[in-house]
Write a structure and sequence with these properties.
By secondary structure, this protein is of the alpha+beta class. It contains 12 helices and 26 strands. The N and C termini lie far apart (75 Å).
Length: 489
């Protein structure tokens, strides 16, 4: 027989084995507590990390609704982010919440968050784009909400970021709850994140997930660098905060890949908050963002191109053309150069160069390292101010191509008679456009018998294409005009 002492000891061990896993699974478990304590330090420990974040940060998250009056012409089309799969993840979003942007009055909704006590709010540009009235709902104690008018302070369509400010009547003053901005550069894949917003009008909805990936390029513009997350994001979440477990904002929820119902399928995208911090001063002081301009048309270096140019790797940005009278031309950059370093920054991919150049102060003299005919060459370039007409690039669309507006300088460089149409600046190998015969340098003047004057026309038409559709393109190539039928995969 087993002595009573050993029976008691054995029973105690069995109870410990049974209870220990439950403590790890429960909200009060030591693993969660230690993680939370390490991440918050100065904040008192709560029973559940996500409950604490929701309680503390919800008051600074706002619901935004907009109204646009009848117009004599449609407002500028919104930034049109696309998914890696080629579908438009926000088509349902715009249809349901922003209307078809015709001449009728329209309304919209989204989210935002307060970043200082005076009532400055960060949100997405597409949430407030073209709005005549901006109304903000913010929590006002005891779970009640108060309505404020807001005014646009500054917006940047290229990064889809906008800054608005609450308007207080009669010159009154009020101190608003705020969210602190974290450092998105320190994010790690697999890290817990929390999203708060206004999906489908359901105010202050809290969802939880992880960082699924970083630096995602989804083809929405030259400055793509999205955080991918599986935290549920739906129409109406746009402009709301994505936070780490310290409660710091590390992203602005912006885009989704939607399912058949237009809802979340587990893949959402947020703009890294460091991008917003980098342009916040310009938005607040100037109402717009001033960027640097180099004046080159670039493309990716494929293995075949690397072999043709005698390169030992595919890193860098290949110069396909140089804009006349641009900083690049004046510095001596030539077609066929491969830019590998810009002002002490390595240029590893084509996509990284516009971001580096754009963040450079206009007027600054920088060193640009290129590879020309197998040899390295360093050139001195004085960066100019980027103007809207100098970079209008459409997203990589369902056709797998990238297009841009034809400026007078580009028309002169390519010996074109006019600036109508869009220039094919990039073709993705293996995608529908390339397989159908579209080439870099083609001028698209019609899509499905609809005239295309600029990227706005092209985005509007291409945005309606779906998998299985065939797009009939009228293309100018050299001195001839041809039709090309592109069937979407």
């Amino acid at each position: 027989m087993i002595p009573n002492f050993f029976k008691i000891l054995l029973l105690a061990i069995m109870m410990a084995v049974l209870v220990l896993p439950l403590s790890f699974l429960g909200g009060d478990g030591p693993l969660i507590q230690k993680t939370y304590a390490a991440s918050t330090k100065s904040q008192p420990l709560g029973s559940n990390i996500f409950v604490e974040i929701a309680k503390r940060q919800n008051p600074a998250v706002v619901n935004i609704s907009t109204k646009t009056k009848r117009r004599s012409r449609p407002p500028r089309a919104p930034r049109n982010p696309r998914s890696p799969g080629g579908q438009d993840p926000f088509q349902d979003f715009y249809d349901k919440f922003f209307g078809d942007r015709d001449r009728k009055p329209r309304s919209g909704m989204g989210s935002g968050f307060v970043i200082d006590k005076e009532g400055y709010i960060l949100t997405n540009n597409h949430v407030i784009d073209g709005a005549d009235e901006i109304v903000v709902l913010i929590q006002d104690g005891n779970n009640g909400e108060k309505e404020y008018d807001a005014k646009l302070v500054g917006a940047d369509s290229k990064t889809d970021i906008a800054l608005i400010k609450l308007v207080l009547k009669d010159g009154s003053k009020k101190s608003f709850p705020t969210l602190s901005l974290g450092n998105s550069d320190n994010l790690e894949v697999g890290e817990w994140v929390v999203a708060i917003g206004n999906p489908f009008g359901l105010s202050h909805t809290v969802t939880v997930g992880v960082v699924s990936a970083k630096e995602r390029n989804i083809g929405s513009g030259p400055y793509d660098e999205f955080i991918q997350t599986d935290a549920s994001i739906n129409p109406g979440n746009s402009g709301g905060p994505l936070m780490n477990i310290k409660g710091e904002v590390i992203g602005i929820n912006t885009a989704i890949i939607s399912g058949n119902t237009g809802g979340n399928v587990g893949i959402g995208f947020a703009i890294p908050i460091n991008i917003a911090k980098g342009i916040l001063k310009d938005l607040k002081e100037k109402g717009m963002v001033t960027r640097g301009w180099l004046g080159v048309m670039i493309q990716k270096i494929t293995p075949d191109l690397a072999e043709s140019f005698n390169l030992d790797r595919t890193e860098g940005a290949l110069v396909g053309d140089v804009i006349p009278n641009s900083p690049a031309e004046r510095a001596g950059i030539k077609r066929g150069d491969v830019i590998v370093r810009f002002d002490r920054h390595e240029v590893k991919t084509m996509e990284s160069l516009p971001k580096i150049v754009g963040s450079t102060t206009p007027g600054k003299a920088v060193k640009v390292e290129v590879i020309r005919e197998g040899k390295k060459k360093v050139l001195d370039v004085t960066i100019a101010i980027l103007k809207d007409e100098e970079i209008k690039v459409a997203a990589l669309d369902p056709l797998g191509i990238q297009v841009q507006d034809i400026t007078p300088d580009i028309a002169q460089s390519l010996n074109l008679d006019d600036v109508e149409g869009v220039l094919v600046s990039d073709v993705t190998p293996g995608e529908a456009g390339g397989e159908s015969g579209l080439k870099r340098g083609d001028i698209i003047s019609e899509v499905n018998r609809n005239k295309v004057k600029n990227t706005s026309d092209y985005n509007r038409i291409a945005g309606k294409l779906k998998r299985g559709d065939t797009a009939l393109m009228l293309v100018k190539r050299g001195g001839t005009t041809i039709y090309i039928a592109v069937k979407l995969k």
